[in-house]
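Hi L.,

You mentioned the student needs an example of a multi-chain input paired with its predicted structure. This one should do, with 259 residues in total across all chains.
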Amino acid sequence: MAIPFVSSTRSIPDTARGPRHVAIIMDGNGRWARRRMMPRVAGHARGVESVRAVIRACIDNGVEFLTLFAFSSENWRRPADEVSFLMQLFLKSLQKEIDKLHENGIRFHVIGDLSAFDESLARLIREAEARTAGNERLTLTIAANYGGRWDIMQAMERMLAASPERRSGFDEEELSRHLALAYAPEPDLFIRTGGEQRISNFLLWQLAYTELYFTDTLWPDFDERALADAIQSYLHRERRFGRTSEQLKGGAEDTSGDA
Ligand code: IPE
Ligand code: IPE
Ligand code: MG
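Structure written out for the whole complex:
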């Protein structure tokens, strides 16, 4: 298997540009709806509009990978009717949007434990992935029934299964090749809407050196403008990856070899 990207703890990525990979926890749908005296699920339905807007804005801003947290492995704890609404919404949105995604050159992926999903949804996901596999404009990943700890565990199991005779000597690179997002560089920019400042078991491994951005804006209100604000904030960060500020100013790119 090809190794497309090296981990940010091992080598330093090129940061002299806007984010290549943006990962978002789309939070605040329920509160958006409750504030309007509507049922929580109305906020989820409205949140699909924000997904459309953010996909467009990512393409306009030269983002190559967009990863959206749609349903966590912990979200099964919600009331059954909300969970079932979310599954239906995912199914219907995918059915409705897949042609447009494909026409727009978007490669579609889902990460997460699909074994818990309805067979019809799982099949639709696999078909959409296969159909859009050759697209190169933007890779859109939906994290569904995803948990960062699940990801690390499944990667470890697959790594061990790949060389059953070995007991030691594994390194980070080897493990990361088995992570669900192995086809993408690590996120440059993480955004969480809805005001909470936590990771909620999202991409635990991959966020090691990601710039974090939290906004009170609720997901259904998040739009092109809001994304531009997040990218502006990112562009003002100094990504040091363990080095000193002086090293960066002295143009220390050539010290970027493996740790
Ligand atoms: C995020 O919005 C969507 C999902 C977790 C599926 P929430 O439903 O968590 O909205 P709040 O946080 O209750 O407002
Ligand atoms: C995180 O949102 C998961 C998604 C956005 C899909 P939650 O709203 O479920 O997060 P917690 O549980 O409040 O941290
Ligand atoms: Mg929430």
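You could point out the following to them. The helical segments are 29-35, 40-60, 80-103, 119-132, 148-162, 172-176, 224-235, 245-249. The chain is about 40% helix and 15% strand.

Best wishes,
N.
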